[in-house]
Design brief:
Length: 535
């Protein structure tokens, strides 16, 4: 569905009560922030114009999140810095102060109440506008109907619980909430990291219409191709300091990469030339209930088999069935020509199958534990003398992986949650390496990490492949998949659409398989796709 925005109706929310503005709706002057032992920001200055989409770029750990939290009222800057809204100095002691100043933040991990309705969420921060003790459901619905209609999202029912919505629809609810708050500035942190390309296109249309109505958007993303299509100006941070602010029209993607990493990255997708060996993993007609149907493929020593498809193609569900997280109701799995039956992750691990999950924070790491304990999650489960852990040995193992994978921490006792996304991903991988896995499954291994860290992850994958490890890799970024994988298995709605060989890999061809529909079931069978590719 195309996004259509009624500009006149939307403007009644956006422009009502606006004061006259100078050229800059937001100015940051010499903003610094120091935490114990860490300088997160150092004298950062930037400005945002009214009705501008201003991209904020930088590697993980560059200071973007700290800056956003200062603008959101969660952190206060060190003395000496100044924030101006419409030319007037402001101080945010708490998030409510930022909202009162018409700054609304839409975080990567959405902050909606899942068991409340869409309408209730949209008016959640405006309860003081509704007098009386009883909930005003009819009033809530009128407001929700108007703003969702103005955003072109007629299919979202205001009476539905947020839990029942897709991630993309939940983002729309967050934006609707910001619109009804008369936001002058909307901060968006990685808004497309978990949504499909079609939903991304809809989001871009909404952003353009917010811009047309005088709303300024500060947009954070690691996907540089998105920045090129939406941003007016771009500010780049590195190591907590301002590198510069540039007009989008004046720079190339390579210029931005060099600004972010401080050096030229001539090969963003390094691919190691590896000799492909014998079959390690063979899957025949794998089925898991109604979610995954008749998947067949092989992965060889040293091979990276990419798994492609749109959001909702059930790539993750297929990987979970291989790892024992979902039941295999039909089909067979062979490891080195021997049939295996992993009914749970523990059994999969015994067969030396590793799984670097998509959501490292929820299923890959324990944020409140130190780095060295996260690295040793599997090692700590091995039999030990008299049941006691050898902490010195575990720290030695962690130091080894810290050095090998270039995990950037001040010390291995550092708390996991304080690391940047790229370093967290390296720790999520490090915990699997000591038992020399035969198969490593990577589910979105570079989601939410910067371009420099991505390149390092690709290099690590290449080194693992060179050792003879068989690798499965899911990615929603087609350029990444095409550049890194030796072959690509394409899925759609739990079915296999074909396997694409290296010489046929193009974004257009892979996407055509991922979106292919047919009235004839035989046309959509896995064998049809394989036969087409074999011709």
């Amino acid at each position: 569905m195309l996004v259509y925005v009624n500009v006149l109706e939307l403007s009644t929310y956006l422009l009502e009560d606006f004061v006259s503005m100078d050229e800059y709706v937001l100015e940051l002057r010499n903003i610094s922030k120091t935490f114990p032992g860490v300088v997160a920001l150092k004298n950062v200055s930037m400005n945002v114009k009214k009705g501008e989409v201003h991209a904020l770029l930088g590697e993980n750990g560059a200071g973007k999140s700290t800056l956003i939290k200062i603008l959101s009222g969660y952190h206060q800057p060190d003395k000496g810095g100044e924030i101006l809204i419409n030319g007037k100095p402001v101080t945010f002691k708490e998030p409510r102060d930022a909202i009162k100043s018409a700054i609304v933040t839409i975080y990567q991990e959405l902050t909606l109440c899942p068991d409340m309705t869409v309408a209730e969420n949209i008016v959640l921060d405006k309860q003081n506008e509704f007098k009386g003790f009883l909930l005003r459901q009819s009033d809530y619905q009128v407001i929700a109907d108007r703003v969702l209609s103005a955003l072109g999202q007629h299919e979202i029912d205001p009476n539905k619980s947020v839990r029942s919505l897709s991630i993309a629809q939940q983002q729309v609810v967050e934006i609707a909430k910001a619109v009804t708050s008369k936001a002058q500035i909307v901060l968006m942190d990685e808004p497309t990291s978990s949504i499909s390309q079609s939903d991304t296109n809809k989001l871009m249309d909404i952003i353009r219409n917010l811009k047309a109505n005088g709303v300024s958007v500060i947009y954070i993303s690691h996907r540089l191709h998105e920045i090129n299509g939406i941003a007016d100006r771009i500010t780049v941070l590195r190591d907590g300091e301002l590198v510069g602010t540039v007009n989008n029209a004046d720079v190339t993607e390579q210029d931005l990469i060099q600004m972010m990493v401080g050096r030229e990255l001539t090969n963003v997708y390094p691919k190691r030339d590896v000799q492909i060996g014998d079959t390690v993993l063979k899957v025949e007609n794998l089925t898991s209930g109604e979610l995954v149907k008749d998947i067949s493929f092989e992965v060889h020593k040293g091979e990276i088999l990419g798994i492609g498809g749109l959001v909702g193609s059930r790539r993750t569900e297929m990987l979970e069935a291989l790892f024992g997280l979902r039941p295999v109701t039909e089909g067979k799995i062979y490891l080195n020509d021997e049939e295996i039956h992993p009914k749970n992750p523990r059994q999969a691990i015994k067969h030396r199958i590793a799984f670097v999950t998509e959501d490292r924070k929820k299923t890959g790491l324990v944020a409140c534990l130190p780095v060295f304990e996260n690295i040793n999650m599997l090692n700590a489960q091995r039999p030990s003398f008299a049941g006691y852990l050898n902490w010195a040995q575990l720290k030695e193992i962690a130091q080894k992986h810290r050095k090998t994978l270039d995990i950037r921490v001040s010390k291995i006792e550092q708390i996991m949650g304080s690391l940047s996304g790229g370093n967290q991903q390296k720790v999520a991988l490090a915990k699997w390496l000591d038992f020399s896995p035969q198969v490593i499954i990577f589910d979105e291994p570079t989601r939410g990490i910067d371009i420099g860290a991505k390149t390092e992850i690709y290099q690590i994958m290449g080194e693992l492949a060179a050792r003879g490890t068989a690798i499965l890799m899911v990615s929603s970024e087609l350029p990444e998949l095409i550049s890194v994988a030796d072959r690509i298995l394409v899925m759609q709605e739990g079915h296999m659409k074909g396997i694409v060989e290296k010489e046929k890999m193009t974004q257009e061809y892979v996407m055509s398989l991922a979106t292919q529909k047919s009235q004839n079931p035989a046309e959509n069978s896995p064998m049809k796709g394989l036969m087409n590719d074999a011709r």
